């Protein structure tokens, strides 16, 4: 196989996606069912990954946690793309002063550490999945917008753009028809490579109690459950940590392979 | 007159805050183009031809002068106010392939003016009609610009320009980057379309063969000014401005039996930042006299306008060349 890491990436991603989509079929146990008698059971045939401090089946919680992780990753990435593309096009095509102002805001946003941003937002609005998505969008948008802005700037004086202006096309049409299709490729590749980062942000915020509210299963929350009892019942932390590692690895391998195939110029970035 | 330009100036700011100044890319030119007429602008690179074309097409703000198109003043129009005019005046850009949007199919490129101006039409039929007008088969409709040769891309550009039957087409170097045989095809196509559709054309070029082939009248540009304007045939027969004479003498002549004495111009084109005093051509003019260095010549004449103190008589040879030739 020409791309062994890429193949491994595809397998891991398919496992995670399949597990999340068919969670109810694969794991019959209710991920939120509390069973005080079954607390801290080690892995067995009945409970493939054991149970946690409330007796909940960890295998089921991990699969359902995958749903949360993937849907947050997809939704937040899509939202980041939408906002980043629009802002980048405006900054690149709009007047100079607006460009300068927007770059200033992007840089200011980028200089915030992710966790600080998360803490500030959660303090204001309380922990929720929405907070996770907003944090991801705020973290991703400056980078995405800058990529689009730089390329838009380069295309602004291209002859086919001038030709469209000469024809009487408005800014909206020029950006939609003539600029966007030529600038979006590299961004889509970078965004696909950011999916593991988003998964890590969701897990991290849920670990800190800033993300999903209990009892919703999330890999970060499971990790936190296991964290306090890691000496006596390490399988809980493993159940939370392993999927995070495998998923981020899988998406990273896949993303890097895709990038190298589609756009060799970006090699070594990200 | 479809287009009248009076004393048009385009300036570009140079320098930083403290010593800011401006250079004149176009330094006051006037000309008219009648309906159905082809007018050519010739000059060296950097003489302001393209800037002038962009200014006429309102892609470049002007600093002084008037532009009247189809009886209406258009200089100073901005934004949505320019839109009706853009339907009547189409511009073709230098790079045949680069002026076509790379991710758009030819079918949509040639019919984009319909969409931009909200013209109701059967766009598929229009695309086929326009492509056949410029001599391309309907198969080209599904291609992307990178799948076209330079000549084919130029034809697509022409098709787009004539899509909404404009009154004036501005063609910036319509033959640039094309093989000689393709250049001829494109020029014949333009001539043909002009006759069939009654277009007026403003052609910008440094290729004198192009001028001779298509232009009714021409203007020779030097450092942003017209040095000579007139009927193409008359100017080619007897150039009166020394610069025109030098340009024409540099034009490759296919007939080897025709003796061609080249008038070579000394020195380089002066910088726009430091325009020569008096007649701006005197630093390179073989016929220059002392008056030329101090006093700027005003353009003389009506149909044929010449900005020179000492216009040449037909067949004049520069003094320096006569010495070495004998």
Topology:
The complex is a heterodimer of chains A (270) and B (326).
Chain A (H helix, E strand, L loop, with lengths): L3 H18 L1 H4 L31 H36 L2 H16 L2 H12 L3 H28 L2 H9 L3 H37 L11 H10 L5 H29 L8
Chain B lengths: L2 E12 L6 E13 L4 E5 L6 H8 L7 E6 L2 E2 L9 H6 E4 L13 H5 L1 H5 L6 H11 L16 H12 L6 E5 L7 H18 L2 E6 L2 H7 L2 E6 L2 E7 H6 L4 H8 L55 E2 L12 H7 L1
Helix pairs in contact in B: 6-7
Descriptors for this entry?
heterodimer, A: 270 residues, mainly alpha, MetI-like fold, 10 helices, B: 326 residues, alpha/beta, Rossmann fold, 2 domains, 4-stranded antiparallel beta sheet, 11 helices, 11 strands, disordered C terminus
Description:
The complex is a heterodimer of chains A (270) and B (326). By secondary structure, chain A is mainly alpha-helical. Chain A has 10 helices and no strands. Chain A has one domain: MetI-like fold, CATH 1.10.3720.10. Chain A is elongated. In chain B, a hairpin with a 2-residue loop joins β9 and β10. Chain B has a 7-stranded mixed β-sheet, with helices on both faces. In chain B, strands 2-1-4-5 form a 4-stranded antiparallel β-sheet. The longest helix of chain B is centred in the middle third of the chain and has 18 residues. With 326 residues, chain B is an alpha/beta fold. The chains are: A mainly alpha (270), B alpha/beta (326). The interface between A and B is medium-sized, with 16 and 24 residues.
